[in-house]
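User: My collaborator sent over this chain with a note saying "see what the structure looks like." That's all I know about it. Can you take a look?
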Amino acid sequence: MSNYRPDTICIHAGYSPKNGEPRVLPIVQSTTFRYESSDEMGALFDLEKSGFFYTRLGNPTLDAVEQKIAAMEGGVGALVTASGQSASFLSIFNICRAGGHVVCSSAIYGGTFNLFYKTMAEMGIEFTFVSPDSTKEELEAAFRENTRCVFAESIANPSLIVTDISLFAEVAHSHGVPLIVDNTFPTPINFRPMEFGADIVIHSTTKYMDGHATQVGGVIVDSGNFDWNNGKYPELTTPDESYHGVIYTERFGKAAYIVKARTHLMRDIGAQAAPQNAFLLNLGLETLALRMERHCANAQKIAETLEQHDKIAWVNYPGLKSSPYYALAQKQMPNGTCGVISFGIEGGRESAVKFMDSLKLASVVTHVADLRTCVLHPASTTHRQLSDEQLKEAGVSPDLIRLSVGIENVQDILEDLEQALAQI
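Assistant: Without extra context I'll predict from the sequence alone. Here is the result:
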């Protein structure tokens, strides 16, 4: 599949039916798999052979989707998870135990921030939050002896800040740690972070990858490029006694990280995706390239229109030339960014609520990035657990409205926005 272009990979990677087999990826709705002998099963448990024996660790439907997403991002392997939150957690916990430290962009999804700031902090993992606009020197200052990774979003949700992935990767690598990038908003259709130095890429597959709001899921993709043999990662380079002393880097080479995530963390934590959800996700992936093209075209038109409206205080969209991230977006994502726009309405929060309540086509929902246009006020919903100072650091102003532009006819969306603005 490496010779195919992204939109072809979306359709064909991961599953190639043989003669007489189903053309569409089947749902293997089974918890377990039969073998002829105990020795065969034992070899699987000892990681001496590959195969399926229990869906928590692997399943043919999940495997096909994992292979497809790994091919889309250009990685050596992937692991689908029960949610984007579980993907965020596992991606860090796989290489950072209690006493470890993470350098993290402050402009991230509110749920991810709370996961890091509260839950993982309570587990003994410290986070230093830095501006996504940090200079090299400012990033350097955040590192400690016990830093184990750097985490950032390629396009921040909902502030739409575009992170300079090359810079973050350069600084991370100079300190001997990997860069983990949440690439949910642009998807691998518009941006492949590994080509800019990222080592691990994650997604909330609930968003554009699914595209229809039918399944909750996540995925972790391993580039296979990071050298774990630098003394910082005994989890990967010393014997794992729970698997008879296997050393992941020796046994699995470039795939050491993702194999450990599956065989250790997924085994013990069990945040696995369901086969039915993986099937639905695959259907979404097959049309991802087409949908992203339409999402971006619609969003560009709407952002340009809102920017000229007298009731709009400000508009933030990386595709606008007025955006401070326009040049970086053009460098990293020349074919488009995403379908999400953030803006503020004259009159502040009260006007924002009146505007959203007046929409007819667009829905007020706690979701983003599917084929239907939807809208949300993050400061009072997804980011409501953050203090005013934390909201500011995350790039979320009190008047910010997040508009997730769907793939409806753009004129219908514009007319709905106009009639709602007229109510203010």
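A starting point for your reply to your collaborator: The chain is about 40% helix and 15% strand.
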